[in-house]
Amino acid sequence: MGSHVGVDWASGSWVVVEATTETTNVSTEPSLLNVWHEYRERANEILVDIPVHLESEGDRECDQEAKDFLGSRGSTVFWTPNSDAVTAGDYDVAVAKNTRGLGSHSWGLVPRIQEVNTLLDEFDTAHKTLYESHPEVCFKAYHGDNLPSKKSDAGFEVRKKCLIKNGGESFQPVIELADKRQANSQWHHRIQSGRVDDVLDAAIIALTARESAGSYSTLPKDADPACDPSIVYPGN
Q1: How many other CB atoms sit within 10 Å of the CB of residue 143?
Q2: What values do phi and psi take at 44, rounded to 5?
């Protein structure tokens, strides 16, 4: 049986959580190409918290539905630039080409969006393995409403408990690493202490991949994550 992988960008590297039925492992990779080469042979699915498929114009329906799904926490979903903006080499050009304004956070994600779409262009098999997910959508699907901000102490604790409740003791290595990083300002696995929430984000989408076993719910409903702009989350 293969493993299941969750990947989240952590300001300098990709945090990778690999989950099996027995345990989890946290590591980092400098690029998604490295992730692909490392895990493609053994991972059943690789879920990434980055836009995977783009629209040529207009907003992606999946972004709007994710905002609606999260309600008061909908601001944690950023509008994805359209394909022309992503391929523009200059910020002003990208703003002009994008359907709506282009905020600094969205512009900062453009190189990561380029990474994943270049990967899909280079490796046809990636379309059957690598899908887009969103940690906040997954946490809400497992935990329900009243999810505190992940930057708060309460939000940090709730997310750790959610992982153990739904993933079992196999996610204890993630919790131990997160706790160690919270108490220690030194780097560990190339993860800064201020980015520990990204470890939990990668973990929840790894859990989603493992527990859904390919039977995901999608935003929008009935979308094909192999080719449609869509977000997968825990299956019903």
Answers
A1: 16
A2: -70, -40
CA atoms of 74 and 183, how far apart (whole Å): 30
Tens digits of residue pLDDT in 69-90: 999 899 999 999 999 999 998 8
Q: How many CB atoms lie within 10 A of CB 115?
A: 19
Q: Give the ranges where 8-129 is alpha helix by DSSP (H).
A: 32-39, 61-70, 83-87, 91-97, 104-122
Show the low-confidence residues of the chain (pLDDT under 70).
1, 183-194, 236
Closest to 4 (Cα-Cα) out of 162, 186, 227, 232: 232
d(C-alpha 192, C-alpha 234), whole Å:
28
Farthest CA pair distance, the chain = 49
Conformational region of residue 27, where left means phi above 0, alpha means psi within -120 to 50, and beta covers everything else = beta
pTM (2 decimals)?
0.93
∠ CA 81-84-86 to the nearest 5 degrees? 50
